[in-house]
Amino acid sequence: MGGGTQMKGLLKTGVAALTLALATAASAEIRVAHVYGKTGPFEAYAKQSHDGLMMGLEYATGGTMEIDGEKIVVIEKDTQLDPATGRSLLAEAYGDDDAHIAVGPVSSGVALAMLPVAEEYERVLIVEPAVADSITGSAWNRYIFRTGRNSSQDAISNAVALGGDGVTIATLAQDYAFGRDGVAAFKEALEATGAKIAHEEYVPTDTTDFTAAAERIFNAMEGESGDKKLFIIWAGGGNPMSKINAMDPSRFGVEIATGGNILAALKAYKELPGLEGATYYYYEIPQNPVNEWLVKEHFERHGTPPDFFTAGGMAAGIAVVEAIKKAGGAEDTDALIEAMEGMEWQTPKGKMMFRAEDHQAMQPMYHFRTEIQDGKDYGVPVLVREIGLDEMKIPLRNQ
Questions:
Q1: Which of 83, 157, 161, 310 could bridge 306 with an S-S bond, Cβ 3.0-4.6 Å?
Q2: Distance from the Cα of residue 52 to its chain's centroid
Q3: Which residue intervals define the domain Leucine-binding protein in the entry (predicted)?
Q4: How far apart, in Å, are the Cα atoms of 222 and each of 167, 169, 193, 218, 247?
Q5: Residue 328: how many CB atoms within 10 A of its CB?
Q6: d(Cα 6, Cα 124) in Å, to the nearest integer?
């Protein structure tokens, strides 16, 4: 009788242990939420970012999509480029889906709405590719890391490429965080070059008619001497560069200048051979094994080269894997943060490093000059020189 009871107890214990083991095995997965503007004005950027993220996870895991035997599960959520939607979807990802890490979004405005959610849930958010300085500046918290470049990195590299004694610059940008942060950082970086800003013009993000804005810029620049440039900071549609170029700014001695962009946008650059600026990425510029793999695989899978945000998404995917490996798992957020602060890893752009103070990824940028090349229907950004991590004196803006 006693033996039977003992046997039943052992069986019951064994069943419970097996049930727990099976449940643990079933839950032994790493959940990564990609919260990004899959639909909306930045769809092209979003697709590149997601393709790159998946390729980065694949590359960093040797094709297994596993880390130490745990499967990586990617959960997609579409912000539709709306800040309130982005905020609620990130909360859903952390709360309902129990995501260990989130990546995204595309828009700076959406990102700024999402930052407090990461702090509330005490989970890591890797911002890619939203650019506004305030993301790793005034709005930052310890759960935020950014693999994408920030406005200061864009600004400093473009100031190095365009600035100089006797140079006068006007700016045109979209009237929201991306544009205003970009111009503010550009002005600050330009001070050290000897150039001056003559005029700032901000227009709505959906502007298609730039006539009035261009006239104000030309009027402001008309009395200036020396080299005169109009520096354009723009994301999405509208194509201000081509439309303003059609107004013949050379009549006022003004040259158009801008930073790099996705391949589709580079078609407008073909109208401006010799245009200079600084870019985050162009697939023929970086020479390293990660970029070689990305370019080869992207051509084989899609028949096209990887683009601006494909490289960024891949950098984020590799960072996710390297951080989890270094932390010994994805469950402990504090261990992840400790692992990521100061972490160096290889990307399609070469080495990146998360600065410990604000978790901004320090990375190289590229001074380019546009060329017209046979077989390409866009202006090709040809490397003038790489602007290395040591030259990118990026201000700490979260102090």
A1: 310
A2: 11
A3: 29-371
A4: 14, 12, 22, 6, 15
A5: 12
A6: 48
Q: DSSP character for 251?
A: G
Q: Which amino acid is at 140?
A: W
> Would the pLDDT of 317 be above 90?
yes
Cα separation, 336 vs 101, whole angstroms: 10
- Is residue 47 a contact partner of residue 129, using CB atoms and an 8 Å limit? no
Give the number of other Cβ atoms within 10 Å of residue 244's Cβ.
21
Instruction: Give the closest residue to 264 by CA, choosing from 301, 237, 303, 243.
Output: 237
**How is the beta sheet containing 70-78 ordered, strand by strand?**
66-67, 70-78, 29-36, 101-103, 124-127, 144-146
Domains for the chain: give ranges and CATH numbers. Answer: 28-149+286-363 (3.40.50.2300), 152-279+366-391 (3.40.50.2300)
- As a whole number of Å, the CA-based R_g of the chain is 24
Say which amino acid occupies 280.
Answer: Y
Integer Cα distance of 192 and 195 in angstroms: 8
| pLDDT one-digit tens code per residue, 71-106 | 999 999 999 999 999 999 999 999 999 999 999 999
This prediction has a pTM of: 0.85
Neighbours of 7 (CB within 10 A): 10
- Please write the tens of the pLDDT for every residue from 156-183: 999 989 999 999 999 999 998 888 988 9
Instruction: Give Cα separations from 286 to 254, 344, 351 (angstroms).
Output: 31, 17, 11
Amino acid identity at 263:
L
**Token couple for 121:** 């849930």
Q: Running DSSP on this structure, what letter comes out for residue 276? A: E
Q: Which residues contact 237 (CB under 8 A, 6 or more apart)?
A: 41, 208
**What percent of the chain has pLDDT above 90?**
80
How do beta strands 144-146 and 365-371 pair? unpaired
- The answer to which of 33-47, 72-86, 90-104, 381-395 has the lowest mean pLDDT is 381-395
